[in-house]
Structures are given as C-alpha cells and as structure tokens.
Design goal:
Number of helices: 2
Shape: elongated
Order of helices and strands: HH
Structural class: mainly alpha
Helix content: over 70%
Radius of gyration: 17 Å
Number of strands: 0
Strand content: under 5%
Length: about 90
Amino acid sequence: MSAASKAMYKPLSLATSVLGGIAAGAVFQQVWKRVAHEGEAPDPHDLTRSSKEVLISAALQGAIFAVVKAAVDRMGAKGYRALAHENPV
C-alpha cells in the first residue's frame, strides 16, 4: 500500500469505526430489549442487579460489538478496494 493510499484509507477507516461503534450500540440496545424485556442493560455498578445478569449483558454486548466491527471493517475494506483498485493492507 502506497503512502498516498494509506493517507486516504486512515480517515475512511476511522470514520467507519466510529459509525460501527454507534451501530453496535444501537443493535445491542434492541437485542437487550427483546431478550431481557427491559429498556436498558444493567449497569455493573448497580448492586441491585445480579452478577449473572450483568455478566451476560456484558458478554452479549461484547459479542455484538465484535461482529458489527468486523462487518463494518470488512465492508470498508471492500469499498476501498472497489474505489482504489488495491487492498487496504
């Protein structure tokens, strides 16, 4: 990857990462509403919630974030390749 390509890809990668994080948060909120029938996930500092519930929520959030991040990064890399005709690595 040339220096010019790196300079073009870095801002694109940063922007897609931010959008991916926002999308992952929205997806998690919707999944949590349907799974737990609650509006918000438990706060780890809320001692009225069980540890099991807090840890399950955190694991689910982490899994969703990882999948969404990988999907967004992958789409960004494919989009860059389509535009620049070279791989972004």
